[in-house]
Amino acid sequence: MADSETQLEKWTRILGSIIAPTTVLTAVLFYFGYVSARAEYEYFGLDVDTTGLSTQEYIMRSGQTLFVPLLGLILLTVALLMLHAWITKRIAPTPGTEPTPRLPAVNLQRVRLLARAARAVGALVLAAGIVLLPAYAWLRDWAPYSLVTPLLLASGAALFAYATYIVNVLQRNKSDVSAQGAAISRLVQVLLIGCVIASIFWATATVAEGVGRAQAMDIAKRLDTLPSVILDTKEQLFLRDPGVAETELAPPSAGQTFHYRYRHLRLLIEGKDRMFLVPDKWCASDSTLIVPLDGSVRVQFQFQNHPP
Hints:
The protein is α+β, with helices and mostly antiparallel strands. It has 6 helices and 6 strands.
């Protein structure tokens, strides 16, 4: 019985180590895909929740949003790790030897002064970001606010935490730091790292929103690249969008179901049970037409290709 419980605990830990990160990653990808899609379709007057996009579709959309920030973050992390290795190699004691630093006392004093100066700069940058947080009510119309504020918080917290770490390393070399002081310092660094992670998340969400809006503007410039749609309806739609041509299907007959035809429409997106159409020429006063796929309309996709 004990062996079976041990095996159960083992497999539970293994499954937990696999499922939990996967769930978190899925949630993160879904969130950034949703933020990007919301900004993109909001440009066309749509609430993204009305499109009926699935979780998988949001996750697939997150790739183009996260690629550049993730690549930049990886390269920055590699550079910072290399810098960290270079610094600690010169100020930390060699394993298996007496706890004496490798640098001469004069150079070590300079490092200590630089670390304290960096910590002061980090504190100032972090304070600037903290001041901007409650200023949202007055600065929300300032376009860079949602990007500048998290970057200040992240860079300030990271610089302050790392400079504090270097100062602590130098203090350990001198053996003049108490256990309580070291514990408090570690706690502060953990909290600052949490601030960095949250700020990076915020900044990435802002980038995702900007990417979605930029994609929408690019689509608006090239609406002719979207699928062309001919829409037949039973009743007149009274569309007022410039460029959309309305034709009454004549002559009417007893078996004719659809009476009006609309041309110069483009398929913006297709949801689960509806399509969203826009005029094929952009205008600031355009509207997005929601067409249910329930037999109440007839849709034709028009194409023009080179002969085979």
